[in-house]
Amino acid sequence: MMKKFKDLVTANGVFSDGDWVESKDQNPNGDVRLIQLADIGVGTFIDKSNRFMTSEKAEELKCTYLEEGDILIARMPDPIGRACIFPELNTKCVTVVDICIVRPASDEIDSRWLMHLINSERFNNQILKFVTGTTRQRISRGNLAKLDVEVPPLEKQKRIAAILDKADNVRRKRQQAIDLADDFLRSVFLDMFGDPATNPKGFPLGILSDFYIDHKNGTKCGPFGSALKKHEYVENGVPVWNMDNISLNGKFTDSPRLWITESKYVDLEAYSVEDGDVIISRAGTVGKMGVVRSKSEHSIISTNLIRVRFGEKLRPEYFVNLMNYCKGRVGRLKTGPDGAFTHMNTGILDKLEFPYPPIELQNRFIEIKEKVISSLEKSERNEIDNLFNSLSQKAFAGEL
Fold first, then answer.
1. N or C: which end of the chain has fewer CB within 10 A?
2. Which of 108, 131, 85 is CA-nearest to residue 10?
3. CA-CA distances (angstroms) from residue 358 to 168, 249, 263, 312?
4. Which has the closest alpha carbon to 123: 106, 103, 100, 146?
């Protein structure tokens, strides 16, 4: 049965945005926790934030208290529309306005099935069509309400959720091994290069603009919204990279979700991306970055990205690892409570000062990292990811 998303929630349920809680409303000694965007992962509650307010203030603002089993949807990147189940935290909790609360309160809807549906590529493609904003992209609750959902019988929902839960558990265990490897590589990086804030190795200092391929092509911000409108996206063609193509640990994902025609690419060729370019988010999770290694012949950056292109003196992989492993310790860049950089633009990048190690040492670290990652990211992990994605696609296409 086809329904609109809003119709999945009964009159006794909840389908609302979180609450508008300003800094002045918060209190570190409060008894009500404020759940934030950083807590919302794809299918998992990250439990990262540490903001509070008093019960009195929550009552004054008429906040909606969260309940165990609520579905929380992040209306902002990264990625936009990601969802998780709210767990039991043994404390009163409310959430911020950029998170949507979904409590179906229906005996026809299984919450874990609905969470997997929201995180599916099929549903996410619908979300992307309704994203608004240029510097701060988001999906409104009103637009979420309009999205179409094919609702199978409850027993089938539960069966789909159980299958995807098991597949996702296998995938997460594999990810844990990769996270441990990343911790190891962080230690190797600091041992080889030292803390950039103190520069114990005595490397010469340089500014980032000295390492650009040239003054004109070193950095480029993505096109203004007026240059690339929603209706100009197509089902296939030249990829448009966005914030979802970069992970928090600096990995680029060669899986585009947005495309333009070849003729539109010609119009926007100034925003093109070459293999080895670094792309950096300047909205959402500011400063998230990765090195583009793609099988696509042509591609461009989206509005909220910065493209950086280096010459032969600086390896892009070294720069990305420096920025990820030493956040807030390079130049004057600062990070906020969510771990993201507080501000990022081409002017800041141009003047970024950091210790410059010999290219041979950069290459040596990259070789070590490639060996460690390749030992983990062989066909087994790709097969696990492909299996989960295939199961998810089949489940929500009614083929499972």
1. N
2. 108
3. 42, 24, 42, 12
4. 146
Closest among 55, 313, 39, 365 to 201, alpha carbons compared = 365
Cα 131 off chain centre by = 15
Q: DSSP H helical segments within 216-271, as ranges?
A: 262-267
Q: What is the largest CA-CA distance in the chain?
A: 67
Structure tokens at 23: 């800094």
What CA–CA distance (Å, rounded) separates 56 from 45?
26
Q: What is the mean pLDDT of residues 85-112?
A: 95
3-state secondary structure 22-83: CHHHCCCCCCEEEECHHHECCCCECCCCCCEECHHHHHHCCCCCCCCCCEEEECCCCCCCCE
pLDDT, tens digit, for every residue of 297-347?
Answer: 999 999 999 999 999 999 999 999 999 999 878 877 777 766 677 778 899
Which superfamily, per CATH, for 204-356?
DNA methylase specificity domains (3.90.220.20)
Count Cβ neighbours within 10 Å for each residue of 205-235 and write b for 16 or more, e otherwise: eeebeebbeeeeebbbbbbebeebeeeebee
The pTM for the full model equals 0.63
Among residues 77, 96, 392, the alpha carbon closest in space to that of 245 is found at 77
Question: Has domain 2-151 been given CATH number 3.30.950.30?
Answer: no
Enter the tokens of residue 336: 């906020």
Please list the alpha-helical segments (H only) found in the chain.
55-60, 111-119, 121-128, 141-146, 154-193, 262-267, 316-325, 346-350, 359-376, 379-395
Return the DSSP state at 235: S
Among 240, 217, 215, 210, smallest CA distance to 308 is for: 217
In the chain, domain spans: 2-151, 153-190+357-400, 204-356
Same fold, 2-151 and 204-356: yes
Tokens encoding 89: 């935290």
Q: Which two tokens stand for residue 371?
A: 């060996």
